[in-house]
Amino acid sequence: MKQKSLFRTIEPYLYLVPAGILFILFVFYPFFNTLNLSLARTTPLGSVSEYIGFTNYINIFTDESFWQSILVSFEFSILMVIFSIGIGFILAIVSNERIRGRGIFRTIFSLPMAISAAAASVVFMFIFHSSMGILNKVLGTNIGWLTDKKWALIAVTIVSVWMNIGMNFIYLTAALQSVPQELYESASIEGAGFFQKHWNVTIPSISPILFFLLIINVINSLQAYAQFKMMTQGGPAGATNVIVYEIYQEAFINSRFGVACAESTVLFVILIILTALQFKLEKKVTY
Question: Is there a contact between 240 and 153 (Cβ–Cβ < 8 Å)?
């Protein structure tokens, strides 16, 4: 009986063992190994050759290209978060209205989720091509969307916003359907117009989902890589050299794995700080 009681006590924890093993192998070990390598000088294959303390951190904080990558990352993140959530919200409102073909619209708006970043980047590379691209032909311009320092980040942001709209649209559509219709009816009786109803009823009612999407979109934007690798390779002149691409260059082009790990650690700290600040704002969320 004693053994049976002991087994029942530990049984729930046994179910966690497979997940725990996966977390150790693919989350905790890589994380602590990154911290370890960030304090070392490495061989071209990525193994430790010499421990040098915080030298890698000192080097990156005195490196102008690293600070530029941080600045570019924040510019990209702000643009992507505002437009991907904003457009997703507008599309969700439109598709939530009683209109014909509502199911078709929802399917079309959700499609970007099914397309990989690499595939989308290749398609948009043709669209943004300075001489053969359809965008310049339609606009009647000759802009080097991916080669002009002024336009490159905007072009990649457009692709990133398009790829993230689907996720935001699905979450926001589901959230809108949970808002009681009685609230809209009460607002109409009090004379609220279309925009007033959504400002005073919709946004407060779905604020938990908006808060969740804000966190997810910020994290996704600061971890963006594929579209930058495929479309601009960090150029022109570092205009699209976001921090994740900077880490890739240091690790796999310059073979400075210690420096890359130090930059990865800094990115991790930035994400933790931003997430903590967003949770500070949680008190303004209506549950």
Answer: yes
